[in-house]
Design a protein that fits this description.
Layout (H helix, E strand, L loop, with lengths): L5 H6 L5 H4 L9 E6 L9 H8 L7 H6 L2 H5 L6 H19 L5 E5 L6 H10 L4 E6 L6 H18 L6 E4 L7 H20 L6 E8 L3 H5 L26 H18 L8 E6 L14 H7 L6 E5 L8 H17 L4 E3 L7 H14 L43
Parallel strand pairs: 1-2, 1-3, 3-4, 5-6, 5-7, 7-8
Helix pairs in contact: 6-14, 7-8, 9-11, 9-14, 12-13
């Protein structure tokens, strides 16, 4: 299967309301790096999974059944250390630019929690905070859930009204995210050639699957991703193709392949999904990566897998790609190269601070940095409308977000 060309994905779209939904630059006191969190030992695994599944009635017996990914790695998810490394890299980049913004770090589901980070930065005298979330694409779990949990943390800590939290926009098509992914895919294809497996390569861009119903309402809803108007009555579904979550990832994947075409022209590629969970009768985004690997034509001589939907090599990457997808490739004798996520690539770190400088002005005569985007979908919005990325029930959120 070959996905659409960049032109088919992006250039026929009308101007989006999202690109006009900007927030005036302001002077911020600090940055909050917002992460998901993960266990850091065997004793943490079940309490962590309880946090993630809170309110869903999942018994510990079931959690123990799904804990084997973490048990395999000694109960330690790599995500917390990766965020420590990212925090340090951000601090170094901020220092090099003379911005003078301290960086705090908080997680949704494990220590340091949002509550801890908010109490700490408030005690240090900070009142206006710019939030960097470690997800690039629009979805409930990748954007709105963070904003809801931050609003709840403000309420729990009694700091609602004391602190202003503004979140930078989704950065799926920012050069700082795109360019490291381009370079990674190039290196992956070059490795296949060096190993003698580059005659007929295929590239798969892997991202986290989400329920189709959640994907359909991802992003703003003024128009479908194909540009046609939203139905106004009759109970019609908003969009059957994965909403803006899938469209953003298709657009960026197509852009990456367009960039590598100078050296590797006409390489077929596929957007695939991984890490689905829950009731198997509930539709989730497809195709599953392992089924997609099994369906590849026998003429394919090597596979490059790019975890485009992730910003670091955390558990879903380490288990679902480096174990399960690799095993599927080995079963059919297909050479595979899994390329890295953006992690703390200097271009990615620099790009995150570019996003900060779009919003932060340190002095009255400072000009904000121009907003950059490499697809026609962006630059994405600073402020989400009320019906953007709706979850199970609408909850209060922090004031602005991408």
């Amino acid at each position: 299967m070959t996905e659409p060309t960049p032109a088919q994905v992006t250039t026929e779209l009308p101007p989006l309301a999202a690109s006009a939904r900007t927030k005036a630059p302001a002077t911020y006191d600090c940055i909050l790096l917002a992460g998901f969190g993960g266990p850091e030992g065997q004793d943490d695994v079940i309490p962590y999974l309880r946090n993630v599944t809170a309110g869903r009635g999942v018994p510990d017996e079931r959690l123990e059944e799904v804990s084997h990914h973490y048990r395999h790695f000694g109960g330690v998810s790599p995500i917390n250390q990766q965020n420590r490394d990212l925090k340090a890299a951000l601090e170094a980049e901020i220092a090099s630019r003379g911005l003078g913004l301290p960086v705090y770090w908080g997680n949704r589901f494990w220590a340091p929690y949002f509550d801890d980070a908010l109490r700490e930065l408030h005690a240090d005298g900070h009142r206006r905070v710019l939030v960097l979330v470690t997800t690039a694409f629009s979805s409930y779990s990748g954007c709105r859930a963070y904003r809801e949990d931050l609003a709840a943390a403000l309420e729990r800590t009694g700091l609602d009204g004391e602190i202003v939290l503004d979140k930078v926009r989704q950065y799926f098509d920012h050069p700082g995210f795109v360019e490291p992914n381009v370079n990674a895919v190039l290196e992956g294809l070059r490795q296949l050639v060096a190993d003698g497996n580059g005659e007929s390569p295929h590239v798969m861009f892997a991202t986290h699957s989400i329920p189709s119903a959640a994907a359909d309402v991802s992003g703003p809803r003024e128009a479908r991703p194909d540009g046609t108007p939203v139905p106004t009555g009759g109970g019609e579904a908003w969009y059957a193709g994965g909403g803006w979550y899938a469209e953003q990832q298709r657009a960026v994947s197509a852009l990456v392949m367009d960039r590598v075409a100078g050296e590797f022209p006409d390489v077929p590629w596929t957007l695939v999904y991984q890490s689905r969970s829950g009731d198997p009768s509930v539709p989730w985004l497809e195709p599953d990566i392992n089924l997609a690997i099994e369906a590849l034509d026998e003429s394919v001589t090597g596979l490059v897998i790019s975890p485009i939907g992730f910003v670091s090599d955390h558990m879903e990457v380490a288990w679902d790609l480096d174990n399960e997808a690799l095993e599927t490739c080995e079963e059919r004798g297909l050479p595979m190269v899994r390329v890295p996520t953006v992690g703390i690539d200097p271009a990615f770190v620099s790009g995150l601070i570019d996003l900060v400088e779009e919003r932060h002005v340190g002095a009255a005569d400072d000009a904000p940095r121009p907003r950059e985007a490499l697809t026609d979908l962006g630059p994405w919005q600073d402020v989400c409308p009320a019906d953007c990325c709706l979850g199970r029930a609408a909850k209060p959120t922090v004031a602005s977000a991408g």
